[in-house]
Amino acid sequence: MVPDKTEIETTIASAIRKALNREVGEITPDTSLVTDLAVDSLDLVEIVYDVEEAYDIQLEPDELFPQRLLRDPDNVNEGTITAGGIAKLREQFTFTSLAEIAPGTPVADVAGKLLTMRVFADYVAYVIGKKSE
Amino acid sequence: MRRRVVVTGLGAVSPIGLSVEESWESALAGRSGIGTIDIYDPSPLRTHIAGLVPPFDVHDFVDPQHPFHSDNRRLRFGLAATQMALRDAGIEMDRLDPERVGIALGSNELQFDEHVIGGTLANVFNGERFDEAAWVGELLAHESPPMRQLLQESHETVSYLSSQFGTQGPTASYLTACAAGAQAIGEGYRMIRRGAADVCLSGGTDSMLTAFDVIGFTNLGALSRRNDEPKRASRPFDVYRDGFVLGEGAALLVIESLEHARARGARIYAEIVGYGTGIENHHLTAMSPDAIGPVTAIRRALSDAGLAPERIGYINAHGTSTVENDAAETRAIKTVLGEHAKNIPISSTKSMTGHLVAAAGAIEAAFSVLTLRDQVAPPTINYETPDPECDLDYVPNVARPIDVEFVASNSFGFGGQNVTLIFGCEPGE
Amino acid sequence: MTERRVVITGIGVVSPFGVGFGAYRDGLLAGRHGIRPISLFDASKSPVRVAAEVTDYHDDLLPSDPRHNVVLSRSMRLGLVAAAEAVSSAGLDDRPDIRAGMACLMAVERYDINLEDFGESFARAISADADAPSGFSFSRQKYLSRSHRAAHPLWLLKFIPNLAVAHVVRTFGMQCEANAYTSESAASLQLVGDAAESIREGLFDAALCGASDSRISPIGIERYISLNLLATGTPDDVSISMPFDRNRRGYVLGEGAVFLVVEALDHAERRGARPLAEIAGWGQASDAFHPYRAHPEGRGLRLAMAKALDKAAVAPADVDCVAAAAASLDDLDSAESVALRHAFSASNPSVTAPAGAIGRTHTAAGAFGAAAALVAIASQSIPPTANTTEPDADSPPGLVTGIEARPARVRTALANAVSFGGQCASVVLKEVES
Hints:
The complex is a heterotrimer. By secondary structure, chain A is mainly alpha-helical. Chain A has a single domain, classed as ACP-like (Non-ribosomal Peptide Synthetase Peptidyl Carrier Protein, Chain A, Orthogonal Bundle). Chain A has six helices and two strands; from the N terminus they run αααββααα. In chain A, helix 1 (5-20) crosses helix 2 and helix 1 packs across helix 6 (117-132). Chain A is globular, with a radius of gyration of 15 Å. By secondary structure, chain B is an alpha/beta fold. Chain B folds into two domains: 5-111 and 152-424, 3-Layer(aba) Sandwich (Peroxisomal Thiolase, Chain A, domain 1), CATH 3.40.47; 114-148, no CATH class. The longest helix of chain B is centred in the N-terminal third of the chain and has 16 residues, at 73-88. In chain B, the strands form three sheets. In chain B, strands 5-4-6-7-1-8-14-13-9-10 form a ten-stranded mixed beta sheet, with helices on both faces. Chain B is globular, with a radius of gyration of 21 Å. Chain C contains 14 helices and 17 strands. Chain C has helices at 21-29, 74-89, 96-100, 115-123, 140-145, 156-159, 163-172, 187-201, 218-226, 265-270, 299-312, 330-343, 355-358, 365-379, and strands at residues 6-15, 18-19, 36-37, 50-51, 103-107, 126-128, 136-138, 178-182, 206-213, 256-264, 277-286, 321-323, 350-352, 381-382, 406-407, 412-418, 423-430. The longest helix of chain C is centred in the N-terminal third of the chain and has 16 residues, at 74-89. In chain C, helix 2 (74-89) runs parallel beside helix 7, helix 8 (187-201) packs across helix 14 (365-379) and helix 11 packs across helix 12. Chain C starts with 5 loop residues before the first strand and ends with a strand. Chain C folds into two domains: 6-111 and 161-430, Thiolase/Chalcone synthase (Peroxisomal Thiolase, Chain A, domain 1), CATH 3.40.47; 115-158, no CATH class. Chains in contact: A-B, A-C, B-C. At the B-C interface, helix 3, helix 4, helix 6, strand 5 and helix 7 of B face helix 4, strand 7, helix 5, helix 6 and helix 7 of C. Strand 5 (171-174) of chain B pairs antiparallel with strand 8 of chain C, so a sheet runs across the interface.
C-alpha cells in the first residue's frame, strides 16, 4: 500500500532535519531542497538513504536529480534549458506536476525548481507504487 | 643548485597487464580491463564491476622465504611492481648504498573482511545483543588467513618492501586517497632533490575491492552501476558517465638523482621537473565551482618546473568518470592553461584501468613517462557523446602520435588533496 | 647563502593527562601517568585491561562544523581539538590570511570497525542457526544486500584516513599544500622535518603539522596481542608502561593528538610571534630488518640521529635531553639503548621516555616526543620516565626516573620515533635565544 503524501512528506522532512542537524524552519511542499534549504551532496546522500530505509525502496538518483538529462547538449544551450529539454523533463517527471519552467532558464535554477518537497514526495510515492505492483 | 631527478625504472601490475609494457600496450590499443568482480560474489551489491588484476604468482618476484602475508593484494601487487621496476632500472640492490635508497609509497586504509567481523560477532550474539567483552577473545581465536588481511595496516607494505629490498633511507606511506600515488612520487622527488636519498622507490599500490569498500562508495553515489556493460562503464568526459569504476594494482617508479643515474650508466626515461599540490577546502568531499584545489596544484607544479603553461604538450587527466570530477578538472585546466587548453591532448587512462585509488597516480605517472618515450598519447575510451561542460580534446578512443616535450599528470584526492606532476624528456648534457 | 631558520610557534595537545599542552606538561613534569582501566569499550574479558585514554574530551570542544560530527572518528575529533589549540597558541586565531597560506601535514592512520557504528548492521545479518556452535550464524548475503544499511550511510568518511586532513584544512581555512602520512610512530616526526625543508625552500612560510591516533578498540587490542606486543594484566596493573625497565613486558595502548605550528623564523618575527624552539635538524632512516620487529643494533635510529645532528650541526656532546621512542617494548627499547650508546659514546644526555606516562600513541608518538622535548626546553627540566623503577642494565645512563623532574640547562633536545616497521625519525630542537 502506498502511504499518503502527507506521511511521505513528514518522513522526508524528518530525514532532512536529521541530516542538516540545525534549525531549518517550516518545510512545506513548495520548499526547495536546493534553494531554500541549501542541502549539499553529502546531506542528500543521508536524506535519500533514510527515505529508502523507511520504505524499503531503492531510489534512482538520476530519476530524481536528472543530472544526465540536464547535461545533454540536446537539452541545454549555453547553460540554459531548451524547449526540447523541458519536454524531456516532463516525459521523465510523469509522476508529478512539474512547476512552470520557461525555455532559457539557467540549468542551475532548474535543479532548484525540480527538487522540491512535493516532487520528492511524488517520486517516493511513485517508487513505492511500482514496487507494490 | 638543486639536484635534478630522473625516472630510470618502471614496474606495474594493473587490470590491463602484468607489467608496465603489457599495460601500456593495452592502453594504446584501447583495451578495457573492467569486468565483473570474481574474487567474491558481488551480486547482492548495487555495483558488481571493477578492474581486477589477473592472477599471478608473487614468488616470481620475491624470495619465497620472506615472511610476508601473501594473501594481501596490496602487498603482492607492491612487491611485484617494485621488483619489476628495480629489474627495469638495472639495479641490484647490493650494489647501491642502502642508506641512500628511500621508499615513498601511496597506500590506503585498513581493510576489513565482513566474514571475519560477522563470523566472530555471531559467536558473541545472544539473539538481542553482542557480548562486546567476549569479542576480543573471538577475534583472537580466529586464526584463518583472512585474519592476516584484517591485520594489514597502511604502513606495512612499506615495512615489507623496506625489509625485502634492504632500503635504509627515508620511507613513508602517503594516504591522500586518489592522489596518494602521485603525491608519493612528488615526495620521493623532493627527497632526492633535497639530498636525503639518491634513489627512491616511489609509486603506489592499492586494492579497494572488498565488499565494504564497494558499499562505502556506493553509499556516496560515486560508483558506476553500468553492471551489464562493464567495459563501457568507465567513460571519462562522456556526457553519459555515471560514476567511477574501482580498479586495483600497483605501479612503482625508480627515481634517482641525475648524477647518480649517469654515474651508473642507467637508461633514463624522463625527468621529473615539477610537483605541485593544492587543497580544496570548499566542501568536505565536493569540488568548489572554481576547482581551486586542482587549479592550485597545476599552478604550483608549473611554477616548480619553471614552465609556462604553453610548454605542456599532453595531460594525463585524473578523469574519474564522475559527473563532478571531469567537469571540474576541465574547468581547472582551462583556468590555468587559458587558450592553450584547447590545443593539447588530454586523456584519462582510467577509462581502461578503472580507478586504482592510491595507485592511480602512480600508474598514470608511468603512462605519462611512456607518452614521452614513445611520443604517443593513449586514448580516452568510451568517449561517445561530448558533454558541453567538458569541451577539450580528450583523445577519443584511439591513441594518437604527438610531438611532446613536457607532460603533466593530474591526481585529485577524495577529501581535497590535489596533486600535479610534470615530466620532461631525458635531460640533455 | 644562509639557510632560512625554522621554528615552532604553536602547540596543541590532547593527551591522557587531559586537553591542552599545559596538562601534558604538568603531567609529565610531575611524573604522573595517564593509564587507567579501559572505558572506551567493555574490556572485562580481554587479556588487556588498561590503556592511556583521553578522559576529558567532549564534543563541545570541537572547532569544526557541527554538521560533520557524524563523520568524525574519535581520532579525527582529538586531532581537531589539538589543532585548534596549536592555531590559537601561535596567535593565528585572527589571522585567516596567514592560515590560508599554510600547509597542513598530518600523520594519520586507522579506523577500527566497532560495535557503536556497525553493531546494529551486523546484528541484522545474524540469525539463529542450530548447526552453529554458538547457536547463531552470520549471513554474508543478508549483510551485503540489506543489513549493512543499518550503519550510517557516510561511514566511509570515517575510514578514509586523509579525511582527517580535510576536516582540519576546512576548519582553519588552509589552502596551500596538504599531505597525509603514515609510517606508524615515525610519521609525526618525519613531517616536522619535511615541513622544515619545504619552508627552507620557500614553498610556504608556515605549516600546521600533527597527528592524532586512537585505536583502543577490540580490533586494536586483538591485533597487537596477536603480534605479541601488548602488556597484559589486571585492571589494577596501571604501572605497566615502563620504558627501559628490565621488568617491561610489552606496551600499553595510548591515544591522543599533537599539533605544532612550524614556521620560518623571519615570518614569525615579522608578525611578532614568539618561537617556542628552533627546529635545527632532522633525519629519517629505516632498519630494513623486519615488518614489525626492531633491528637489534638500532640500525635505522642510529642513522636517523646521525643525520639529524649533522643537519643541525650539533655535536652529540651538546645534546642536553633526549625524548626517547622507547615504549616498554622488549626489542625496540633495547635497540634504542644500543643506538643511544652509539650516538652518545662520549657524553651522557638526560633521557626521558614519555610513553611511560601516555603509552604508545602510534602515529602520534613522534609528535608526543617532540612535545616532550619542548616541555624540557620550556621548563628547563627533564620530565621523569613514569613507571620505570628498575632500568635495564643496558638502558641509557642518563635515564631520568622517579617522580621528580630533574632541573637542567636544556639548550638542545633530541626527539626520536621508531615505528613497528623499522621507520625511524629524529628531530633536534634548540632553545631560541631572545
